[in-house]
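Example 4.3 (complexes with small molecules)
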Amino acid sequence: MTAPSGMETLEGGVLPVIIMDLLTPNLADITPEGLSLTGDITGDEIGLTREDTNLSGALAVGLDLTKVEQTICVTGVIEGTAVRECVRCLKDFEEPMAFSLRVVFEPEPNAKPKAGALAAKRVDARRKQAEPVQLETDETGDEIYHYQGDRLDLAPMLREQVILSAPMHPLCKEDCAGLCAHCGKDLNEEPCQCPVEPERSPFHVLRGLKTELN
Ligand SMILES: [Zn+2]
Ligand SMILES: [Zn+2]
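Answer. The structure with zinc ion bound is encoded below.
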């Protein structure tokens, strides 16, 4: 059985019914009281690759949908565990992930680019850490996605929100000592024997002080 990508979720038959409902809710099911969706989803089910975000296990998703005319407001919480690479020691570590989201879905305007294309652009920009691109938001600052027909396709939005929630500079621990720039030794394990270069290290004064105090 092959895992469906986020692009294929509207074509029935591939996904189990419960996932279909969670990721592609029917607009008609959003009553005046709203619609609550909860469940576990895998990265595959929302088109999230290991390169996007490496998940350990499934994501717990809890979403509340409310509808005002053709505009659907989606709020909720996503929880899971991500495997990230520490920017200092380059080791993989597991990090709890929990974030809330609040986005708006509006009917696809014919002349505008597809929401998926916009989303891809924004994610690319985030990856390159370039100038922030202009997010499409409404007057309250909520991010806007678009839908067509009588169902929402939540998978691309969820994938994007998971990627955007990632820290820019993941650290395995706040004070990770990193690797020695000369010998590559993991300085979290023990100090290496490389000579300190006093004139080039901005920390030599501090190190000296610390040695005297000890
Ligand atoms: Zn580290
Ligand atoms: Zn060293």
